[in-house]
Amino acid sequence: xxxxxxxxxxxxxxxxxxxxxxAEAGGGAVNWSYALQWxxxxxxxxxxxxxxxxxxxxxxxxxxxxGNAVVLYQRPRIDTTGDPExxxxxxxxxxxxxxxxxxRVNGGR
Length: 109
Fold this sequence. Notes:
Layout: H1 2-27, H2 29-58, H3 84-100
Helix pairs in contact: 1-2
């Protein structure tokens, strides 16, 4: 990954130089702006990569372990007023949620 980021970083300077040669040959304002933007893209990408490495280095190795996070499930409320089709759909979703959590569904299924 380090080599890929380094290669892309260097490539942005080659692309900036290419755009600069186009701009100097009469390419216009767009080529001048791209000649400045390509190196900026390289520095932005390098900055994001270095930030990612820093965050990964400072990360607690036990953060990704299963069982450390407390997950609270809230039973969905079923809207029975108004549209009967919507109420039936909400009941269906509540049943799927109960099955996913391993709970018994109302009605003894």
